[in-house]
Write a structure and sequence with these properties.
Elements lengths: L7 H19 L2 H9 L2 H15 L6 H14 L6 E3 L1 H12 L1 E4 L2 E6 L2 E7 L4 H5 L6 E5 L2 E2 L7 H8 L6 E8 L4 E8 L1 E4 L3 E6 L4 E6 L6 H14 L4 E5 L8 H9 L7 E6 L5 E5 L10 E6 L6 H11 L4 E4 L7 E7 L5 E10 L14 H5 L1 H8 L15 E3 L5 E3 L8 E2 L9 H6 L4 H12 L9 H9 L3 H12 L10 H17 L1 H8 L4 H8 L3
Parallel strand pairs: 11-12, 12-15, 15-16, 16-21
Antiparallel strand pairs: 1-18, 2-9, 3-4, 4-5, 5-6, 5-7, 7-8, 10-11, 13-14, 13-18, 17-18, 19-20
Helix pairs in contact: 1-3, 8-9, 9-10, 14-17, 17-18
């Protein structure tokens, strides 16, 4: 049972009261001597013992310890966090870059596990599972008609490599039950969503996070694009919250010349560790552009800062998040972990881009709201920079520290002013769910359509825009979509393309009218 924070003061007060009464009754000099020598660590341990042995009600003291750890960390900085055992395995898996399972993308639709799309070349796809199938049973475990949390569903489908599981599915298009025996295998969790051509000589790579496999994925994508003759590369780290610094450093090394500084860190003792580029860069002369926005953070900012401070490329977009703290993960015996800030990082010119957090975590994470109010997402001149945090690149360009990477080329948010919520909504899972449900009603409406025919079909009809408006209304969201109709239609079409044709087709649609991509391609070579 998780213990509510609101009872904590009562419990602590009761525990101290018990301790005081108990001490006075015993009147033992030994106890006084012990308390006199007591330090903070012992005091905390003893308090937990008091609650365990003396408190009138049964209390889950583990939950109190977790609350205490959370409270301590919240006093340090916004990025030092405690990860409980229930979450640590999932976090570690995401950063590892793969897991063992059956290879499906799914969500709970009404009372059943609906398959959005099997992973390409994964075990389920090879076995014959299709988009729209409902999983009724995993082995003998019933999955439909139950409100199962996602972690329970995952645990039923995961297992050891090579182990077999029988899935019973209902295929709506055929109105019948089917059984598939599937051997679990390693399923990659991609951190590079796309590596594709934007034009005859410009390549594009989208990185969604920096995990253990990101550099390898990036290098494979870059190699493929180089074989197609790119002279220019766009690296998209918009909405990339970061991850492993080493992966960002390895990617930056592909573009910088030998011995150019990539990043340096300082710990509490002032010890500095500098990381330089090597001779092994494979794209040291081609043009480089990095796309950032207000959600690009940490490792994304390290990459953007290294490119900007070395005059190696152009940063396009909006001011990044502003996270310049380095965390190290430290494990506890119970499977939990603490991610503790151990250093600050600095870009090659010496900038710390960490924004202030002295006013507390709540205010810190509300800063994105302030950017909306000040108009920063729409007008570059609204970005507040301090002259005291001004730095110069080797070529004399002015760059600023103290709160994110300020782009060289500013591109405002695409939504009309006052409709930021629409732009953010379109990047959530709600569009994916809407599209799945529309396909589920009549998947045959798109059967046999080639991609170009699909695009014509979507362009010539407002049907899905009207349906999406109604879908949003039925969810209880009061959003006006008419002023952002083109943007909404683009995201709807892109999501249909993803579910019907695959991930690259999503980007093929979404990037054609992307404001930042347009800015990049219009820049004179």
């Amino acid at each position: 049972m998780k213990f509510s924070p609101k009872y904590l003061p009562i419990i602590i007060g009761a525990a101290f009261a018990l301790g005081t009464v108990f001490g006075s009754l015993m009147n033992a000099p030994v106890e006084d001597q012990f308390l006199a020598k007591n330090n903070s660590k012992t005091k905390l341990n003893k308090l937990i013992d008091f609650i365990n042995t003396e408190y009138v009600d049964n209390v889950n003291t583990d939950s109190i310890v977790n609350l205490t750890v959370d409270n301590i960390l919240s006093k340090l900085d916004p990025h030092s966090v405690y990860i409980p055992p229930s979450e640590q395995a999932e976090v570690a898996e995401s950063m590892k870059g793969d897991f063992v399972g059956v290879g499906i993308n799914f969500y709970m639709y009404k009372d059943s596990v609906a398959i959005i799309k099997p992973v390409e070349n994964g075990p389920s796809a090879k076995a014959g599972i299709k988009s729209g199938d409902r999983i009724l049973y995993a082995g003998k475990t019933k999955l439909f008609g139950r409100k199962l949390p996602s972690d329970s569903l995952f645990s039923k489908l995961k297992g050891t490599k090579g182990s077999e599981i029988e899935l019973t599915v209902f295929r709506k298009s055929e109105q019948k039950k089917l059984k598939f025996k599937i051997k679990r295998d390693v399923i990659p969790i991609k951190s590079v969503d796309a590596a594709m051509m934007l034009s005859d000589n410009t390549g594009y790579i989208k990185i969604n996070r920096f995990a253990e496999t990101t550099y390898d994925e990036f290098k494979a994508g870059l190699t493929k694009l180089k074989q197609k003759g790119i002279q220019s590369l766009v690296i998209d780290v918009r909405d990339n919250g970061g991850g492993y610094m080493e992966e960002a450093v390895a990617i930056a090394d592909e573009f910088l010349k030998d011995k150019q500084l990539i990043v340096f860190t300082k710990n509490k003792n002032g010890a500095t560790e500098k990381t330089y580029a090597t001779k092994s860069g494979s794209f040291e002369t081609g043009k480089v552009t990095v796309l950032i926005n207000e959600n690009s953070a940490s490792a994304s900012e390290i990459l953007a800062g290294a490119i900007q401070d070395n005059d190696r490329g152009t940063i396009v977009g909006r001011r990044s998040f502003g996270k310049g703290l380095v965390q190290r993960e430290m494990d506890f015996n119970d499977g939990s972990a603490v991610r503790l800030t151990v250093a600050r990082y600095y870009t090659p010119t010496g900038r710390s881009i960490q924004r202030p957090y002295a006013k507390g975590n709540e205010e810190y994470f509300k800063e994105s709201e302030a950017r909306i109010k000040t108009g920063e997402l729409y007008v570059k001149d609204s970005i507040k920079v301090a002259d005291s945090l001004k730095f110069k690149t080797p070529k004399g360009r002015i760059v600023y520290g103290g709160g994110g990477i300020v782009p060289d080329v500013f591109v405002p948010m695409e939504a009309e002013h006052g409709n930021e919520n629409v732009a953010y909504l379109l990047q959530t899972g709600i569009v994916g769910h809407f599209v799945f449900e529309e396909l589920d009603k009549n998947r045959n409406a798109f059967a046999g359509l080639r991609f170009n025919e699909f695009l014509v079909k979507m362009k010539n009809s407002d049907t899905y825009f009207r349906k999406f408006k109604n879908y949003i209304f039925m969810t209880g969201l009061d959003l006006k979509l008419d002023k952002t109709k083109n943007l909404v239609n683009r995201y709807i079409t892109a999501e249909f393309a993803r579910q019907l044709y695959g991930e690259l087709y999503y980007y093929d649609v979404i990037l054609k009218e992307d404001a930042m991509i347009k800015k990049v391609l219009n820049v004179k070579k």
